Amino acid sequence: MQPVKRFHWDTPEYVDASSTVLKYSVARIYVREILRETFSHYPAEARAIDWGAGEGDFTRVMLERFQHVYAVEPHAGMRAVLARRCPRAQVFEGTITSVIPPTKVEAGLISHVLYHAPDHKWGAYTIRAANQLTEDGVLVVILKDPDSGCNQMLEYFGAARFNLYESLAGVIRLHTEFNFSFTCVPGSLSTTSFEDTLKIARFMLCDRDADAFSRSPTEQEFQEYVRAHFWDQGRNTGGWHYKTVLCFVRRNAARPWGQI
Description:
This protein has 260 residues and is α/β, with parallel strands linked by helices. The chain has helices spanning 12-24, 27-39, 57-65, 76-85, 122-130, 149-156, 164-174, 194-205, 219-229; strands spanning 47-51, 68-72, 90-92, 105-111, 133-144, 178-191, 231-232, 237-251.
């Protein structure tokens, strides 16, 4: 049996699949509203950073508000698109672990980036990014809800669901110099072709490494799952409903900087 075909993050087909997700994702409408409201509390001359900016979808939201925006992205192809779409942003090649912004920032964003790091490192990466905040700054971490359809697919094939709540629990207890709060927004993916539905589901499947699955699906099993759970042949539509989790990290005003 043919093993399931996988996307690799540094290939053009991965970039294409990422763009397909953005095309059909409704949740980003609500996320943009929350980000705009959050950023509105800071002056235009404040500084912001988009960690893992991709092609600049949310970087542009930052640029609506801020005069100084840093955008960090490791993928060369996405950086090229990012630079073209967001010419006022200062673009850096690298990741959360390799880039230190030129200044502290009032606003930071980690949107759907943590899939590319082992779950046990999410807390450390979040704190590293939070340490770049000014005294009154805010870091927004965004990830899919644990009960989303794509997470259920991962679990069906023997991989762990992505769970931001559980993965940040340790640093929330340890790092009391920061306050953490969570909210969820509704969303959905609504596709108009089985090809695009399959592409999005494959993109989500590949968020987990191949060796994370206790029973890695064959290509046939994967496509059968997508047809059964994400595609309505009669209506010729596909997708699924899901929630998006947003975590807001702020410095604890009751704790001086550097006090652990």
